[in-house]
Every structure is written in structure tokens, then in C-alpha cells.
Amino acid sequence: MAALDGKRIAFLATDGVEEVEYTKPREAVEQAGARVELISLESGSIQAMQHMDKSSTYPVDKAVADADPGDYDALVLPGGVANPDFLRADPDAVRFVRAFFDAGKPVGAICHGPWTLVEADVVKGRTLTSWPSLRTDLTNAGATWVDETCHVDNGLVTSRNPDDLPAFCSKIVEEFAEGRH
Q: Catalytic: which of 51, 111, 151, 169?
């Protein structure tokens, strides 16, 4: 039996998502047995990026306004510069993210992904890492920022950038298998 058999994992992303920060964690949780759904701002597909260049598009399973956080066991927030900026400006996306924290469900956020956590007001009193330019935003929101490959704080897994993906992917599988915190 795989570590995540029977678990449903939501990936919340939109146009501008850093491709490898979506594809590698998705591959990791699927290989561990999870069912994954891509949740986005609208139905259709999203445009992924490789740094600043357009890459592949990915089909959206459900619009965030129609998604019930109660249907999922965990959440992943990939980065990319534009992706979390669009997400944090959408009230439905912010409510969706906050619901995972209210329910004590594990969440993984990499690179610029924690921007959405700031908007959801869920970082106060937590320790996390991110892309370095988010340090001020996170500390202003009440978090303690650390420069680490991967940091876990009560079910919240964060990493800095695509170089950290091996550690991030391993740790989200572990935390998602543990379940609610």
C-alpha cells in the first residue's frame, strides 16, 4: 500500500505557475498513491512557465469557486511569480487556502507560493521559508522566515526554489500521509 492511497490532493495554481514546481510535486504525490486535482481561478487550462518563458498548458479539473476544501486531504501551492499574485487577489482562492489551515490539513508551498498564505492570514506565529524576496512580506505578516532547503511547521511544508524540489516532494508526501495536524 502506498503512503497516500485514498488521499485526494488539491493543487491550486493559475497562469504563470512555475512548471516544475507543479509537475514534480504532482508526480511525487501521485506516485505515492494520491489522486490529484488541479484547482484554478477558472475552468479550461492554465499556462505554465519555465522561468519567464511560456511552457506547457495544463487542464483545470475544477474552478476554485466550485471546489470544496472538505473534499481534499491536503493542498499544494506551487510558485512562479505571477501565479500566486493572481491567486492572492482572488477571494475564492484565499478562502480555499484558509480552509485547509482552519481544518488542520497539511499544506505545501514552494518558492513564491507563500504569497497566497500571507493573504489568507495563516502565517502569523509560523516559521517558513520561501523565495528570498518574500522574506519581508512574510515577516510583516507575523512569520519567522528561515533560509532552509525545506522547513516544516505543524503540517506546513515550505521550500525556497526548484533546486529544493527533491526535499520538498519527499516531505509533502510524509506530511500528507500523517494527515491532520
A: 111
- Global pTM reads 0.98
Instruction: Label residue 78 exposed, middle or buried (CB < 10 Å: 0-12, 13-18, 19+).
Output: buried
Give yes or no: 151 in active site.
Answer: no
Largest CA distance in the chain: 43
Element of type H or E holding 166? helix 165-178
Q: Over the stretch 115-153, which tens digit does the pLDDT of each residue have?
A: 999 999 999 999 999 999 999 999 999 999 999 999 999
Check: CB of residue 122 under 8 Å from CB of residue 96: no
CATH number 3.40.50.880 given to 8-178: yes
Task: Read off the pLDDT of residues 38-95 as tens digits, 9 standing for 90 and up.
Answer: 999 999 999 999 999 999 999 999 999 999 999 999 999 999 999 999 999 999 999 9
* 150 assigned to active site: no
